[in-house]
Amino acid sequence: MTAPHHPSPRTPAPASTPGAAAQEPATPPRAAAAAPGTPPGPAASATHGRATVSGDWAGSAAAQWGPGAVPVSGRPAPRGTARRVAVPLAVLSGVVAAFAYVGAVDPNEPGHYPVCPLLRFTGIYCPGCGGLRSAHAFVHGDLATALGANAAAVVGYAVFAAVWAVWLVRAVRGRPMRVGLAPGWWWVMGGALLIFSVVRNLPFGSALAP
Q1: Is 130 in contact with 150 (CB distance < 8 Å)?
Q2: How many domains does the chain have?
Q3: pTM as predicted
Q4: Is the separation of the CB atoms in 151 and 143 below 8 Å?
Q5: Fewer beta carbons within 10 angstroms: which end of the chain, N or C?
């Protein structure tokens, strides 16, 4: 026979506490509006025309260009002319200092400068041989002696002067200096230096030898 089924007693549900209300997440109150006349903070923005920039930019702009002047968003503040020409002038200062040293210390006297390794071990003039003597003569205004010592170096002086002048003008106008040469020009210059080196080591090219 089948045993009689006795239903299990149910656990009574806990009674709700009187007066208890469902808790809901509190909504944070809105930030109070800034009082009139309060200066903008870092997150605030200042609008000038259609350009919107942060409060810090607006403050720096007012300090640099006067009240009411705000730079266009996304563009850095323009640098002064003195800062733009600082690098070209620094390069020129280094070159002038080097020429002044060579002009004061005569390379025609042995012991002042190291000897070219190629000339020392092979007796062959490289493209740079005679460059110091050329610079020494150039500093003292002897252009003929400078060309005789190293004509390629004198051409290099002229090229440097032209490039530096263009660099300075573009720096004053706030334009970047870019020197981009096609690979063919590099081959031409390399070939010219090679021909110069070969010719100055031949008997008929002794005028180009230092």
Answers
A1: yes
A2: 1
A3: 0.58
A4: no
A5: N
